[in-house]
TrEMBL record:
InterPro entries: 6-blade_b-propeller_TolB-like, WD40. Pfam families: PD40. It comes from the Bacteria. It comes from Nostoc azollae (strain 0708) (Anabaena azollae (strain 0708)). Belongs to the TolB family. This is WD40 domain protein beta Propeller.
């Protein structure tokens, strides 16, 4: 009987020491000074792959804050998120963002039928389009020119990683700052 009482007493002590240890551990993993509001730049979740617009006002990055990977756009001047309807699709990954000068165009890598493709989101039109729908080989690391006309990326269409330049054409509406002139 004495052994049983000692074992029960020991189990209670171990139980409470575990409770206090885990509580202390959880409290030490607090957020610290990271703001956690809806409009704060950083969150408790992973934020990565930042891209800055040419004028320094907008920031695009990949975040896991809503339970899935998504591409977010943040206005550094107003310190708020920019709505981007139609940018993030369900069950697809968006990564490697690149911004034009004023952030009108967001070029990024996504997937189409299980293959990586390069997409372009136009904030003025609130639409995304795939730029490489029938491209041979794998693609990665897209980057858009400040005016939004050219997109460069790496491709493996020849069995090695090469640099490709995609010209969106002379009729594309350029991304220029207000009051700037367009030179031919």
């Amino acid at each position: 009987m004495k052994t049983f009482t000692f074992t029960l007493w020991l189990q209670r002590r171990i139980h409470w020491s575990l409770v206090f240890s885990l509580t202390g551990l959880l409290m030490s993993c607090g957020s610290g000074d990271i703001p956690l509001g809806v409009s704060s730049l950083n969150s408790r979740f992973t934020e990565e792959q930042p891209a800055l617009s040419g004028n320094g006002r907008f920031l695009a990055f990949v975040s896991n804050r809503n339970g899935n990977q998504q591409l977010l756009m943040y206005d550094l001047q107003t310190q708020s998120f920019i709505p981007t309807p139609g940018l993030n699709r369900r069950a697809t990954i968006a990564e490697s963002p690149s911004l034009s000068y004023t952030g009108r165009y967001i070029c990024y890598l996504t997937s189409e039928q299980g293959r990586p493709v390069i997409a372009l989101y136009d904030r003025a039109m609130q639409q995304s389009q795939i730029l490489t729908p029938t491209y041979r080989g794998w693609v990665r690391n897209p980057d858009i020119s400040p005016d939004g006309r050219y997109v460069v990326f790496e491709s493996a269409s020849r069995g090695q990683w090469d640099v490709e330049v995609l010209d969106r054409g002379p009729t594309v509406e350029l991304d220029i700052s207000n009051g700037s002139t367009v030179s031919n």
